[in-house]
Design brief:
The structure is a homodimer. In chain A, about 50% of the residues lie in helices and about 5% in strands. With about 140 residues, the first copy, chain A, is mainly alpha-helical. The first copy, chain A, has a domain of about 90 residues: Winged helix-like DNA-binding domain superfamily/Winged helix DNA-binding domain (Arc Repressor Mutant, subunit A). In chain A, a hairpin with a 5-residue loop joins strand 1 and strand 2. In chain A, helix 1 packs across helix 2, helix 1 crosses helix 4 and helix 2 packs across helix 3. The first copy, chain A, is elongated. The two termini of chain A are about 20 Å apart. The structure holds FE2/S2 (inorganic) cluster (2 copies). The site of one FE2/S2 (inorganic) cluster has 12 residues of chain B, from helix 5. Chain A binds a DNA duplex (30 and 30 nucleotides) through helix 3.
DNA sequence: TTATAAAAAGATACGTAAGTCTTTTTATAT
DNA sequence: ATATAAAAAGACTTACGTATCTTTTTATAA
């Protein structure tokens, strides 16, 4: 459903958060290794997330990526929005120009609930909550 | 969620079915006009659907597209599978190589139900059922 | 049997997502 | 100050989804 870029972004942010808890600020090479993503491209994705103020970075020796306010949770939607665009959860599943409940396509009544439950989910889940699951060993960050 | 190609395919098939009921076999130019899609590309998409035995076609004067067994319903999944590939509803929402309930990613418990409800939906909905809604004027085929 | 109308086929182009390579900037440690 | 280590930036590729144009094949009507 989501693009690879968005998947890398979410996995990278989760890893950064986990490391931050331990007092570390990982660099993109380490991140890429740990989440199993292409190194340079991960750097580009993180550059974009930094510009979007979703994560912070420090250049130079000892630099890396970190969250300025780790307590302030970041929803997955915020990440999806930054990468896939604002319209992602508003589109018609049948491909019409707009989704319109008052003049629906023949898929609307069945598609809209699915789309909206996905939207709800990504608004509830946060980078922090995913990281927490991994730290509790209830889930895995990668599959190497 | 679905690619444009798949959306064109579904809309085209619905239109073909509606016209078939009226005893017509539309050509791709007429279809493209009615579903608001690029003409030649729609021809290519229908060519693929014909090869996949989802719809039939006749060349030559009086030719066009039609369903061989209009009573045999075609699920949306069958169309999605033909265009997006068999793996579409099996992928991990977090981007891991495989989705595995027994070794889940941190999104699995929340993502899998959404993905599976989408899967269920496209297995229940058929070209025929969508066409029926349009014929009852409960839904629209396009937004011109 | 010839003209016509239609899909099929093949070649090509465009646009965006995904990915790589090289250089520049910046912070830190020595 | 200088060397070093890190992200940022820019140019470039590659892959794929989307789209167009032209030619070929095939069925029908006249
Ligand atoms: S109008 Fe198509 S999904 Fe709402
Ligand atoms: S393991 Fe990620 S969705 Fe199932």
């Amino acid at each position: 459903m989501l693009g690879k870029t968005t998947e890398y972004a979410i996995r990278a942010l989760v890893y950064i958060y986990i490391q931050n808890i331990k007092g570390e600020r990982p660099g993109f090479k380490e991140i890429a290794k740990m989440i199993d993503s292409p190194e340079q491209f991960t750097g580009k994705v993180l550059q974009n997330l930094t510009r979007a103020n979703i994560v912070s970075s420090m250049k130079g020796r000892g630099g890396g990526f970190f969250f300025n306010e780790p307590a302030n949770p970041i929803t997955l939607f915020k990440v999806i929005e930054a990468i896939e665009g604002k319209e992602y959860f508003l589109k018609c599943g049948f491909g019409l120009k707009r989704c319109d409940t008052n003049n629906p396509c023949p898929l609307h009544d069945d598609y809209a609930p699915v789309r909206d439950s996905f939207f709800k989910m990504v608004n509830e889940k946060t980078i922090q909550s995913l990281a927490y699951k991994i730290n509790k060993h209830e889930a895995t960050l990668n599959r190497l």
